[in-house]
Amino acid sequence: xxxxxxxxxxxxxxxxxxxxxxxxxxxxxxxxxxxxxxxxxxxxxxxxxxxxxxxxxxxxxxxxxxxxxxxxxxxxxxxxxxxxxxxxxxxxxxxxxxxxxxxxxxxxxxxxxxxxxxxxxxxxxxxxxxxxxxxxxxxxxxxxxxxxxxxxxxxxxxxxxxxxxxxxxxxxxxxxxxxxxxxxxxxxxxxxxxxxxxxxxxxxxxxxxx
Length: 210
Fold this sequence. Notes:
By secondary structure, this protein is mainly beta. The chain is 10% helix and 38% strand. A hairpin with a 7-residue loop joins β3 (61-68) and β4.
């Protein structure tokens, strides 16, 4: 009887050792990736900002979010680059924006990085004082001042981007833009980014016909 009990104890001990040696597979829950480090934002122009950051190993992409103003506001997604940097365009001159970046790895997204902010400069002023005789594009990141009678001629096309500001020089009589026969103007503004023709006078001093 004692011998049988010892045999059973031996079998139980062997089974315990065997179970300990084999172990039990425990599922390992995947963890969220780390947010990018070294996030910075700089003004590229009066209407664009560049968000740079350090790439995260194993990332499949990134989520860039932007909020208006130095504080408050709501962050909204503005880009999903696969690698840094990310350029955000169509912004407003002299405005302040805040950015944050999250890492995407498969179906998982990290917490956002710390916020960084940038204040964009004003549009650079370009004075136009000569006729336009070759194809020319005026871009939204500049302000164009017409100084005198400016003619678009010689079959040239003047293209004006949406959001561009063109002003007549109040101090030069007759400052205006003429499109001559055979020449063209391609100016297509939008509700969000209209093309504005105005005067060089301050906002509270402009008069009809300036």
